[in-house]
Write a structure and sequence with these properties.
16 helices, alpha+beta, about 450 residues, 4-stranded antiparallel β-sheet, Alpha-Beta Plaits
């Protein structure tokens, strides 16, 4: 086999491959011999069909299959061994392949068009410093978080008079039904926070036993809210209009949870927190962790943005044609042109990350994929870290099944691999650039983050 690369430019090349009978004949003969032992043909005992007849019937198909197998391996091996920065897939010359006389030729020539990225290097010392925002958690944020938790774990109490935010229970009746129709009636609940301000005033201050007359589309102009309040489907709620009455039977009010052991247990688990001081400190820790993740996300974005300034040339025409052909008419040339800048950014970034992985000798082991999958399972099902052996075995089984799921053609494995690989590359890159910490409030950080995206 002869294989040679012919470069037309820095980003375009063709791979020329010539095969002789020595390359494919031994394997073709071996397969035909196996066929002769297995094929069943009328008039011949099993395994005694003449080789010439087997070759006549199956030779061409076996030859084409073997040549395609050799070509696929040859192209992949050449690209890998010569460390070519190939973008897109090698595109075979169809006209050349269609012109082959498989019945008479013994030597075959093939060519593949390649799109290449230009040579580049990643010099971390030439990159500017990256800011890592250290977001302070204020006492006000902790107070607001506690108020939300008190509201989330609220209790109920019965009230004597309706106030804004209460829920009222009672009998709803239609007052203006036509003579030939049954008036609508239902025992239901009205949340005052879903009432329109214009209609709500008729209920505020009313007590148990009071009857309120109102126009239902004024009280609940939103048909979804009207449906929830009356218990009918949204499309039916549109027909509920006009005057209604509501006799109040009960009034319930949300009472914020007290800051006590019950709230501590509901928030962080039984016995984990035993004082208000520890409660506030744990909330500060959780918020700090959330802020740190957001800060790292911006740091990653800024680092990738700087990496994209590394000059890399791409074969634009080749890539546009390749995208059009591989999508088989699902996208137009105009769509490709519109989205091409984003596509090339992702291609360049992946090339750069691959280069960084080479520099740092970064590899992804299966156990790393398993650990990432385990963490995903814990988060999805709400499992914390535990010494429970049976629980850990269950998590392991779910994680392994997720990674090895064959129903989606290995996409779960590939997705997890890419995520772990990407994280390792970024973590390595962060050790090679200058990261400057900068204190900031969350509002200041938010303004920077919104301006960056």
């Amino acid at each position: 086999m002869d294989i040679a690369l012919e470069k037309a430019s820095e980003t375009n090349a063709s791979l020329q491959i010539t095969l002789t009978s020595d390359d494919y004949k031994p394997e073709v003969d071996k397969k035909l011999k196996q066929y002769s032992k297995q094929v069943a043909m009328k008039g011949f005992r099993p395994g005694h069909v003449p080789p010439a007849l087997v070759k006549k019937m199956y030779g061409k198909g076996v030859l084409i299959e073997e040549v395609n197998s050799i070509l696929s391996k040859a192209v992949s091996n050449y690209i890998r061994e010569n460390k070519l920065q190939v973008v897109g897939d090698p595109v075979p010359n169809r006209e050349e392949a269609d012109a082959i006389d498989w019945d008479n030729q013994e030597q075959f020539k093939f060519s593949y068009e390649l799109g290449l990225a230009s040579d580049f290097e990643v010099h971390f010392d030439q990159l500017p410093s990256i800011t890592k925002y250290e977001i302070a958690v204020s006492d006000k944020e902790i107070d607001e978080t506690i108020e939300r938790l008190q509201s989330q774990f609220h209790t109920h109490e019965h009230a004597d008079a309706v106030a804004d935010g209460d829920t009222i229970y009672g009998d709803l009746k239609q007052a203006n039904a036509s003579e030939d129709a049954e008036p609508f009636a239902s025992k239901t609940a009205f949340p005052t926070n879903k009432m329109a301000e214009e209609g709500k005033v008729a209920f505020i201050g009313k007590a148990k036993g009071d009857v309120v007359t109102f126009t239902i589309e004024t009280l609940f102009p939103d048909e979804k809210d009207r449906a929830n309040a009356t218990g009918v489907k949204k499309e039916e709620a549109a027909n509920l209009t006009g005057e209604f009455t509501f006799e109040i039977e009960d009034i319930t009010r949300h009472q914020p949870a007290e800051i006590n052991q019950e709230l501590f247990d509901k928030t962080f688990g039984v016995g984990q927190i035993e004082s208000e001081e520890a409660f506030r400190e744990k909330i500060r820790e959780v918020i700090t962790g959330n802020y740190d993740r957001e800060s790292n996300t911006l740091l990653r974005y800024d680092l990738e943005r700087e990496l994209l300034n590394i000059p890399i040339l791409l074969p634009e025409d080749f890539l546009k044609n390749w995208l059009f052909e591989t999508n088989e008419g699902k996208v137009s040339r105009e769509q490709i042109d519109t989205e091409f800048d984003d596509f090339t950014k992702s291609v360049k970034l992946q090339l750069i990350k691959n280069k960084i992985a080479e520099q740092g000798d970064i590899k992804v082991e299966f156990e790393e994929l398993m650990e990432s999958a385990r963490q995903m399972v814990r988060e999805q099902f709400g499992f914390g870290s535990s010494d429970d052996e049976e629980m850990n075995k269950t998590i392991d089984k779910i994680a392994r099944n997720y990674l090895m799921d064959e129903k989606n053609n290995g996409q779960n494995y590939t997705s997890m691999f890419n995520r772990v690989f990407d994280d390792k590359v970024i973590e390595f890159a962060k050790t090679k650039v200058t990261v400057e910490p900068k204190p900031a409030s969350f509002d200041e950080f938010k303004a920077v983050a919104e301006a960056a995206v």
